[in-house]
Q: What sequence folds into this?
């Protein structure tokens, strides 16, 4: 039954190679050191002059230092992958992996920054304290609902873009997939019934994006472990205090077309789309529930490592389009399509924030890219290796930032497309060259 | 801007059942904040008794009717202190609006109507009591220009 389960033992291989390379990132100079005299330029005494210029105008730090292209990937290790609260040290490999993807796909220099601060106020002061070092901040693997308050506050209080990939990244990738899925089945997303199963970071952010995109809240239901978020739910007042994000959804959607106490089974009756971002399956979403969905149903089962329902089961039950979070199955809803490009775009225009409209713009551009290549039931979202995608998404996001007045620099789509292409290409070429030259060591068992 | 279809009036006998339900919900919500707010096991029955006492009692008890349905209430107690120039203070002891009807200005409307009646009674100030940990209430009252006035601390005997 588990068709996708055999193959490589990624866990074993990963541990061996992590030990061999002892980490994945290092810092490298990007200026020439022709002789040691050059240090008089790059360091004292010459460096005093750029310092003086920045002291006069702190925004010059984006022009005279690597700040403009450097972000921090920040985690407290409270909700790492599906592993839960494993602590900051254990979160490090994940943050470093993220940094690698940022560099390779987006040309963005990302610094893993794991720490022991747990409380919201402490987190905010930490982010504000490190702000001068970075052009942006990517929050990662932080427990819910703290992550919502943290993102909201950080977006308000910092003058650099703050992004929580588990919220906005996953939501934007999902939205891109949904846009094309609806196109393919010929339904209007704004007039369809959409069920979000799981009320964690990804789906709460997706709800917000869907709303901004134009889906009326009453057409959406969000379901958590206790059932539909509904204004008549018994714990609704408690939610107001403990999870105001869920509370607002309950009030705004009015529970959609459901009654308080209804669950996923009832919700799926006649629904056009399901986005499950809940807990690993299989069997979390049952075939017989999918069978009750509307004709040409769309099912996104995003839990990792095993989706809430296997794609072939969903299809047997009548779903027309199925997406998961896995790279070995068709239609992978993958954050990596989003975050390297979004940051490429915002860094290039020195944006101060990433608005929901910018996240939506990223999703729309991703969807458009796939559409131009020809949509099919097994291709609603581009694959990670389609690297022309990234500069395009960067350009779309950068232009939106300029349009919305949140960019320090102006640009056009064409200009940013060329710049992003150049930066990303150079980043990949540097890596590939180091690999060819043997400066990136070959692992002992590698025969390529 | 107030919602059309919204009507605020003193609680009357016909509101008994509905008011009892609102009182119960108000107190079970507060239970969240401190063990001292824990409810009596007969709380539902007591809420009904209270509703009976509130209607036609000494306190100012108003209900909000929305589309002919009672969806919220406010209870204000007027306390006297002769040594103060202001003499009398209205204290909002209870205020509750059913969740599906929130975000429409019903709570503010209840306060505004109550305040008008307090003014007619010559009361100069209105205050609000709520659990210290209820940050939503704090935000709400601050937005309506209430300022911190009195702190209340508690410990076990």
A:
């Amino acid at each position: 039954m588990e068709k996708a389960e055999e193959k490589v033992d990624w866990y074993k291989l990963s541990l061996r190679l992590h030990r061999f390379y002892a980490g994945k990132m290092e810092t490298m100079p990007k200026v020439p050191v022709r002789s040691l005299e050059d240090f008089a330029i790059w360091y004292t005494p010459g460096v005093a002059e750029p310092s003086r210029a920045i002291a006069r105008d702190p925004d010059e730090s984006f022009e005279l230092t690597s700040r403009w292209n450097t972000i921090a990937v920040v985690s407290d290790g409270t909700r790492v992958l599906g592993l839960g609260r494993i602590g900051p040290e254990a979160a490090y490999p994940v943050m470093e992996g993220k940094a690698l993807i940022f560099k390779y796909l987006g040309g963005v220099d990302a610094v893993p920054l794991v720490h022991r601060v747990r409380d919201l106020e402490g987190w905010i002061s930490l982010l504000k304290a490190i702000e001068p070092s970075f052009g942006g901040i990517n929050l990662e693997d932080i427990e819910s609902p703290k992550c919502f308050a943290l993102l909201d506050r950080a977006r308000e209080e910092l003058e650099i873009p703050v992004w929580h990939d588990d919220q906005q990244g996953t939501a934007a990738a999902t939205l891109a997939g949904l846009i094309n899925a609806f196109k393919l089945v010929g339904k209007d997303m704004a007039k369809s019934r959409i069920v979000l199963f799981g009320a964690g970071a990804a789906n709460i952010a997706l709800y917000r994006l869907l709303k901004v995109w134009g889906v009326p809240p009453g057409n959406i239901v969000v379901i958590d472990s206790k059932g539909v978020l509904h204004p008549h739910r018994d714990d609704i007042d408690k939610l107001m205090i403990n999870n105001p994000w869920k509370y607002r959804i309950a009030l705004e959607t009015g529970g959609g077309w459901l009654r308080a106490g209804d669950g996923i089974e009832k919700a799926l009756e006649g629904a056009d789309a399901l986005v499950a971002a809940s807990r690993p399956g299989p069997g979390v979403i049952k075939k017989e529930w999918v069978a009750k969905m509307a004709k040409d149903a769309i099912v996104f089962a995003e839990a990792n490592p095993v989706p809430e329902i296997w794609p072939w089961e969903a299809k047997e039950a009548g779903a027309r389009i199925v997406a998961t979070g896995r790279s070995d199955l068709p239609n992978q809803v993958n954050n990596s399509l989003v975050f390297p490009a979004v940051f490429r775009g915002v860094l290039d225009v020195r944006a101060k924030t990433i608005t929901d409209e910018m996240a939506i713009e990223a999703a729309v551009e991703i969807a458009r890219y796939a559409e131009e290549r020809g949509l099919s039931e097994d291709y609603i979202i581009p694959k990670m290796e389609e690297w022309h995608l990234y500069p395009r998404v960067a350009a779309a996001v950068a232009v939106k930032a300029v349009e919305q007045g949140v960019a320090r620099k102006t640009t056009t789509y064409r200009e940013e497309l060329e710049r992003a292409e150049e930066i990303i290409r150079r980043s990949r070429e540097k890596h590939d060259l180091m690999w060819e030259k043997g400066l990136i060591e070959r692992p002992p068992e590698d025969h390529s | 801007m107030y919602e059309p279809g919204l009507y605020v009036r003193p609680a009357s006998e016909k509101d008994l059942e509905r008011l009892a339900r609102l009182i119960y919900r108000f107190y079970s919500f507060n239970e969240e904040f401190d063990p001292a707010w824990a409810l009596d096991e007969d709380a539902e029955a007591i809420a009904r008794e209270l509703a009976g006492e509130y209607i036609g009692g000494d306190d100012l008890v108003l209900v909000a009717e929305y589309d002919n349905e009672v969806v919220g209430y406010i209870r204000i107690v007027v306390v006297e202190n002769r040594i103060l120039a202001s003499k009398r203070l209205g204290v909002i002891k209870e205020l509750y609006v059913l969740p599906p009807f929130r975000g429409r200005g019903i709570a503010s409307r209840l306060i505004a109507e109550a305040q008008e009646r307090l003014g007619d009674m010559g009361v100069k100030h209105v205050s609000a009591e709520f659990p210290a940990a209820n940050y939503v209430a704090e935000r709400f009252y601050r937005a309506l220009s209430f300022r911190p006035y009195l702190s209340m601390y508690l410990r076990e005997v």
